[in-house]
Amino acid sequence: MSRNAESTAFRSALEVIRAVEPRVADAIGAELTDQRESLKLIASENYASPATLLAMGNWFSDKYAEGTVGRRFYAGCQNVDTVEALAAEHARELFGAPHAYVQPHSGIDANLVAFWAVLADRVESPALKKAQVRQVNDLTEADWFALRRELGNQRMLGMSLDAGGHLTHGFRPNISGKMFDQRSYGTDPATGLIDYDRVAEAAREFKPLILVGGYSAYPRKVNFRILREIADSVGATFMVDMAHFAGLVAGKVFTGDFDPVPHAHIVTTTTHKSLRGPRGGMVLCQPELADQVDRGCPMVLGGPLPHVMAAKAVALAEARRPDFADYAQRIVDNAQALAEGLLSRGATLVTGGTDNHLVLIDVSGYELTGRQAEQALLDSGIVTNRNSVPQDPNGAWYTSGIRIGTPALTTRGLGAAEMDQTAELIHTVLTQTTAGANADGTPSKAKYNLDAGLADKVARQATDLLATYPLYPGIDLT
Ligand code: DSN
């Protein structure tokens, strides 16, 4: 692939856009500049390849394709069939999964598809049996009323939000918290680690329909074999949301007990985090759930996005290449180097370190809230996000934590030495920031004091650090 081809492709695309709405072309160009210049440490973000990005910008966007491969509600889907089948094949091969459904538009959508599939498969309900016919429109209002009554409020056991679980695992701000009666398992207060005996105890008491594994802010491996045994012991369906660490599964960093695919009945993921694909979701499942999962659209999802499925096929093909395993291992090596760099400078980390792609700093050690720390770091060219820590006294809005992750910087090529320099920059900002006060003199959880000169200096150091590792080196828009 010549670098010239990438530059030509993106330059030409912007020229075409500029002729219609120059402000959009400018914003796209500005976004590249911003991403190139900032130290991106958001654990759930990455940089997709030029091939993946280009696969999304075309006329596949114009096609409706409700249904699944070979069974569409629209005519003329032969080319969509090709890319959807390719994406699913790559996903099955990459993860060793019996079935893959690549239509979900996001992680939330993937989880909704999975929840519906489990409910539809597991709940004994005459109305549901009728709902399982392909023509959902055949259901009368009375059928839907009966179905809602018969489904009732189902039980879900998942990881608590402050321990690192995700909103879509049965929490109130998400529809899953309204569909399901949720109970959480947390982490051991002394170690910050999942206590599997406590999970088993909670499962025995609560008897969930679904046991959910997976997280968005837990910096450790999870033993999925043990969770499956717990699910089996109470007759629950075991679902894993691997959105954050799918790249580590794909790259065979997480194998055996730590690979969810052979252990779970159903696995959901996004495709844009450590997996480094386009923004979207995906469901992998055992054969017995495949039929229900494939009803995701139109049961739960709007029309599939063929252009994004094309990009998923490209990104999954990339993840099947041998160099992806090297990338995945470097993500973890970098996270561990970052953790070491922070620990050696006196930071407090949840669980004392990491064995995946993310690090959770407890910023109460710097006498800051997560919100103050997040903004101070942003002023200094370091992009992170605030996150709760276990038993967080500052709640989910202000928080006491900063979550950082290495998938994006690893894509740029930064290594252990640069992670140590990054730790130094973070530590400098956090030690030089102080909590601010409200107008009436009371302590603020949002306001902070940071010398603007220092913030600028750190931002310049961050840019210098990145200069050796250009983002999209093959793309020159000038
Ligand atoms: N928003 C994603 C994250 O940042 O973890 C998960 O939904």
From TrEMBL:
<dbReference type="Pfam" id="PF00464">
    <property type="entry name" value="SHMT"/>
</dbReference>
<keyword id="KW-0663">Pyridoxal phosphate</keyword>
<dbReference type="GO" id="GO:0005829">
    <property type="term" value="C:cytosol"/>
</dbReference>
<feature type="binding site">
    <location>
        <position position="161"/>
    </location>
    <ligand>
        <name>(6S)-5,6,7,8-tetrahydrofolate</name>
    </ligand>
</feature>
<dbReference type="GO" id="GO:0008168">
    <property type="term" value="F:methyltransferase activity"/>
</dbReference>
<feature type="site" description="Plays an important role in substrate specificity">
    <location>
        <position position="272"/>
    </location>
</feature>
<feature type="domain" description="Serine hydroxymethyltransferase-like">
    <location>
        <begin position="153"/>
        <end position="426"/>
    </location>
</feature>
<dbReference type="GO" id="GO:0004372">
    <property type="term" value="F:glycine hydroxymethyltransferase activity"/>
</dbReference>
<dbReference type="GO" id="GO:0019264">
    <property type="term" value="P:glycine biosynthetic process from serine"/>
</dbReference>
<keyword id="KW-0554">One-carbon metabolism</keyword>
<dbReference type="InterPro" id="IPR015424">
    <property type="entry name" value="PyrdxlP-dep_Trfase"/>
</dbReference>
<comment type="pathway">
    <text>One-carbon metabolism; tetrahydrofolate interconversion.</text>
</comment>
<dbReference type="InterPro" id="IPR049943">
    <property type="entry name" value="Ser_HO-MeTrfase-like"/>
</dbReference>
<keyword id="KW-0028">Amino-acid biosynthesis</keyword>
<feature type="domain" description="Serine hydroxymethyltransferase-like">
    <location>
        <begin position="19"/>
        <end position="120"/>
    </location>
</feature>
<dbReference type="InterPro" id="IPR039429">
    <property type="entry name" value="SHMT-like_dom"/>
</dbReference>
<dbReference type="GO" id="GO:0030170">
    <property type="term" value="F:pyridoxal phosphate binding"/>
</dbReference>
<dbReference type="InterPro" id="IPR015421">
    <property type="entry name" value="PyrdxlP-dep_Trfase_major"/>
</dbReference>
<dbReference type="GO" id="GO:0032259">
    <property type="term" value="P:methylation"/>
</dbReference>
<feature type="modified residue" description="N6-(pyridoxal phosphate)lysine">
    <location>
        <position position="273"/>
    </location>
</feature>
<feature type="binding site">
    <location>
        <begin position="165"/>
        <end position="167"/>
    </location>
    <ligand>
        <name>(6S)-5,6,7,8-tetrahydrofolate</name>
    </ligand>
</feature>
<protein>
    <recommendedName>
        <fullName>Serine hydroxymethyltransferase</fullName>
        <ecNumber>2.1.2.1</ecNumber>
    </recommendedName>
</protein>
<comment type="function">
    <text>Catalyzes the reversible interconversion of serine and glycine with tetrahydrofolate (THF) serving as the one-carbon carrier. This reaction serves as the major source of one-carbon groups required for the biosynthesis of purines, thymidylate, methionine, and other important biomolecules. Also exhibits THF-independent aldolase activity toward beta-hydroxyamino acids, producing glycine and aldehydes, via a retro-aldol mechanism.</text>
</comment>
<comment type="pathway">
    <text>Amino-acid biosynthesis; glycine biosynthesis; glycine from L-serine: step 1/1.</text>
</comment>
<dbReference type="InterPro" id="IPR015422">
    <property type="entry name" value="PyrdxlP-dep_Trfase_small"/>
</dbReference>
<keyword id="KW-0489">Methyltransferase</keyword>
<dbReference type="InterPro" id="IPR001085">
    <property type="entry name" value="Ser_HO-MeTrfase"/>
</dbReference>
<keyword id="KW-0808">Transferase</keyword>
<keyword id="KW-0963">Cytoplasm</keyword>
<comment type="subunit">
    <text>Homodimer.</text>
</comment>
<dbReference type="GO" id="GO:0035999">
    <property type="term" value="P:tetrahydrofolate interconversion"/>
</dbReference>
<comment type="similarity">
    <text>Belongs to the SHMT family.</text>
</comment>
<dbReference type="InterPro" id="IPR019798">
    <property type="entry name" value="Ser_HO-MeTrfase_PLP_BS"/>
</dbReference>
